[in-house]
Amino acid sequence: MGILYALVGRGSVVLAEFSGTTTNASAIARQILEKIPGNNDTHVSYSQDRYIFHVKRTDGLTVLCMADDTAGRRIPFAFLEDIHQKFVRTYGRAVHSAQPYGMNEEFSRVLSQQMEYYSSDPNADRINRLKGEMSQVRNVMIENIDKVLDRGDRLELLVDKTANMQGNTFRFRKQARRFRSTVWWRNVKLTIALIVVLLVIVYVVLAFVCHGPALPSCF
Amino acid sequence: MSFQDIEAGRPFSSRRGLMNGKQDPTQAVAAGIFQINTAVSTFQRLVNTLGTPKDTPDLREKLHKTRLHIGQLVKDTSAKLKQASDIDHHAEVNASKKIADAKLAKDFQAVLKEFQKAQRLAAERETAYTPFVPQAVLPSSYTASEVDVGSDKSPEQRALLVESRRQEVLFLDNEIAFNEAIIEEREQGIQEIQQQIGEVNEIFKDLAVLVHEQGAMIDDIGSNIENSHAATAQAKSQLAKASKTQRSNSSLTCLLLVIFGIVLLIVIIVLAA
Question: What is the pLDDT of residues B73-114, one digit of tens each?
């Protein structure tokens, strides 16, 4: 919600006003202008139903606004200070001799813009802006936590897969070693077989040459 | 009371010329008590003026000086009273003098209590009220017409000034309440920001824990891959050796077949012949 109505006056004379909604704020504001005691500079707040009327009077110029009760006090009074400065800067000494509603045509637009600014823009208040930025940081960090958790899950999968791969390569190495052993033994058997065959052939040839199985002629 | 004591003291001095020297402390105590009484009365009158339009910094200064003066008088009289008491204990004096000294001591106690009461009241009022500033140093917030008022003011004008001061005090109270409300609201906002920063701090800590754990996981992955690489390299070496042995096996098999072929050929030739 925020600031709904704003008014600038001199004494009980209204110089400019703007209302963001259709309420009876204007009538109540006039009553407040007439009731404010004394002539000193003052800051005061009056509550009525769910709305609070904040009044700031400085150097004879009164600035008033109606705000929701959730708006607090810091933002409405910052708004009043801002409006007061803009009004004095724009009209200067003319405020003391102005006619009722003399500045309403021009300044009501300024009131409207500033009401919108102080109601909606978090930059209107440094604490609110800092609060918003901290909220953003918190959201970003929560997203970071989610991403890191996802990364953790995928890393767990990767650990499992690399563990499997390690197991498989260990078995591969073992089978490769077994295969090499098998081939080596086969080679050994073939070599022995070859030697035996050669010996048999040599014996048969000698048997023929020496005229008998017992080789009698050679010895 | 004090005068009666002094009158009671004189017959002794007229009757006994030998004891004139010993009468001096008692008379001194009586005189001191009388002076203290007078000063305390003045002090009380000044205290009663606190909180009224006559309350000025000058009056505060006078009050302070009177208090110091009474303190000095009390100190002197206390010393003299002690001296008189010592004389009563050491010398053999008659009972009526002892009674007179005791009475003086009691009077001294009473006047001290009265002074302490007045002092306490003065402290309370000095705290509760602020002095009424004279005409020449009025605050700048007063209008020029009020500043120009002459020094000889009528009671009505004085009452108007007091009323104006009261309104100024109310105005200041209002400003104080307003500023306190603003400060409280700002404090609440800052508390919320602090809470959010605390939450972000917790989130960063959790993130650090998670990242550290995942670092350990990545180390595991690294070691697994290195072990796999080493095992694969060894397996490759084993397979290379097996391949070389297998080529040797093939050569031996061919050689055996050739030998068998030759033997068969020879056998066939022999049988044919």
Answer: 888 888 888 887 777 677 666 677 777 778 888 888 888 888
Q: What is the mean pLDDT of residues A113-130?
A: 82
Residues 81-100 of B with CB under 8 A from A: none
Instruction: Enumerate residues 212 to 231 of chain B having a beta carbon within 8 A of any beta carbon in chain A.
Output: 213-214, 217-218, 220-221, 224-225, 227-229, 231
Inter-chain residue contact B227 with A137, CB threshold 8 Å: no
What is the structure's pLDDT at B11? 42
Q: What b/e string do you get for A23-40 counting C-beta neighbours within 10 Å, with b at 16 or more?
A: eebeebbbebbeebeeee
Using CA atoms, how far apart are residues B272 and B113, in angstroms rounded to an integer? 166
Q: What is the pLDDT of residue B133?
A: 54
Domain B23-129+158-216 bears CATH identifier 3.20.20.140: no
The SS3 assignment for A50 reads coil
Task: Return left, alpha or beta for A61; rule: phi > 0 is left, psi -120 to 50 is alpha, else beta.
Answer: beta
| Contact residues, chain A, for B239 at CB < 8 Å | 176, 179-180
pLDDT in tens, B183-198: 998 898 889 889 989 9
Residue percentage of chain B with pLDDT more than 90: 16
Helix intervals (H) in chain A: 25-35, 74-91, 104-120, 126-209
Query: Does B270 score more than 80 pLDDT?
Result: yes
- How does residue A57 score in pLDDT terms, banded at 50, 70 and 90? confident
Sign of the torsion formed by the C-alpha atoms of B224, B229, B230 and B235: positive
How confident is the model at residue B16, as a pLDDT?
Answer: 42
Stretch (H or E) spanning A64: strand A61-68
pLDDT digits (tens, 9 = 90+) for B229-238: 999 999 999 9
Residue B69 is encoded by which pair of tokens? 């003066």
**A65: which DSSP letter?**
E
Enumerate the domain spans of chain B.
Answer: 23-129+158-216
Distance of CA A207 to the CA centre of its chain: 101
